[in-house]
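For this section, I looked closely at a protein sequence along with its fold in token form, which I now present.
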Amino acid sequence: MAQSLPVATLPQVMPQPIAMRLTAGLLPIGPKATIVMQRDSDPEMLRLVREGLAAIGVTDIRIAHRRPSTARETLIVLGMASDTTVAQALAQAGGTPVTDHEGYALASAASGGAALIVLAGADADGLYYGAQTFRQIATRGTMPALTIADHPRMAVRGTIEGFYGAPWSSADRLAHVDFLGSLKANTYVYSPKDDPYARDRWRDPYPAERLAELKTLIEEARRRHVRFTYAISPGPSICYSAPADVAALRRKIDAFHALGVRSFYIAFDDINYTKWNCPGDEAAFGAPDKAAAGRAQAALTNDTMGWLTARDPQAGLMIVPTEYYDAAESPYKAALRAVDPRVFVQWTGTDVVPPAIAIRDAKAAAKAFGRKTLLWDNYPVNDYPESTGRLLMAPYAGRAGGLSDELNGILANPMNQEAPSRVAVTGSAAFAWNDRDYDPESSRLFAARALAGQKAEVTTALMLLFDLEHLAPTFGAQAWQVQAPLLKQRLDLVRDTLANGTPAERGAVLRDLATQADRIAAAPGIIRAGVSDAGFLAQSAPWLDAMALWGQALQASTAGLTAALAADPAAAQHFADAAALTTKAEAIHTISGTTRPQGAIRVGDGVLDLFIRQAPTLVFQPQANTAPVSPQG
């Protein structure tokens, strides 16, 4: 009787694959493995596979270009699904090929007392994504027998560095494209509003040293299977009808094409589109109004697309229109429908920062713009007044499953703080890959584990920070995701128990609150000791400082409530200590020059600060020296 394999559990893969199932238990993995692959295989894909093998205990790896006739050790077969060797191995392992663009199949099974693992890509991108999935699974230290058939539901997935304020550093961008590649995101748009050579001085060439920096980023993005997309914003000053300006636009695109860029972007957002920048535009497009602006922008876009694809059929173009923030019919949008259908047109949803996007909204946008749109999602960007002092770390949510039928993709606009942005971007990338099976909380927990290096205590500390930075504002007074929902639930229970509970219940709820206060106060230290990402620690530093003080203030408030219940006069001092700590916490500001707008750091505001202010009123405290004095006769 054959011995059964050890029991396996279904691994978590982010993004969630379209189809994944266990077929048996854990596979036997020894210290030796052979990788069978083509001679011209992608080095980055091979690096990921090696990392995965190391994680499951393989220390001796041999590379072969033909499958051995017998295998007594772990065998990994990599390549295109169309390759005969790969197709045969995939069938043997119980998998089925995937033909969708960027798709892959992964299958693993026991074979002759050893493990057979097959990665079959529909194309080179798909094979790379399969390797990312293998590496994620192997992080657990074991390899189950399973099959995965996977492909993205949206064509464009990634981010647009499109915020106001200090642009990211070169180190930030290099880290970010690596992060995008790990999540099977395929697009990074370079469009910082404060890059003068992309907006105010768009006609001027980049200095050689800046171009060299961007070349390094472009090459790194290519290795990570991420399309670097160069965005230019000529709208504030362009003369659409001037040959000199058209030539300047082409020169700028040419400079990046020479660096290997094949994806370009013209931004018409945040401009005055009811006046011309030169008299020639009125002669060419009519009196200045919104419809005329639409005609001018469509003409420039089509001219650029035609010129670009004539010299490089593989090149692509995106635009963001001036009316990017709704799906209402308008003379401008009607004129813009003349844009070449091959061009991606971006749309931010039902508002600049929409609280939700439904399928009907995307359908209305497709009708208004004459094509499926590409969603520019202004979450988690924090460059507007309502987001002052905040990291936006709620999960990506409020977007309807099924949007993949109505959108060409999603590009999230991140924060000035690159590494903290990954919490929400993990969700947007996962949603764009597989919106129908997307779970917001799973994506946020995955992001925490990734930052924590899979360490449980550090993950828990990060999740406390994420809860205290949960509020997601809009351009109005009403937030679309509430602040600190888990802590609020706990504090509401404390209030209710103090009002309605028995003495034993009051004591128990305060002991529980003391434990939680200790965790909040300790979390920043745990994060600083356990997170290895220097960018995350530097960019979140003032929030960690403030979080520690707010945790200490909650400790003092809890001690005050406990003392007050015991009629202990020390309660007043505890509450005074809490007030002093909150004053210190509220004095911490954002790091100068790193974000716009600047302001006081907010941590759990409206929840934690409110409870600490209310705490002295929740239990009656007799005041010293207040007894009435009898009059002396």
Notes: Residues 621 and 627 are 14 Å apart (CA to CA). Residues 626-633 have pLDDT under 50 and may be disordered. Residues 19-150 form a domain with the Chitobiase; domain 2 fold (CATH 3.30.379.10). The chain has three domains: 19-150, 156-438, 485-618.
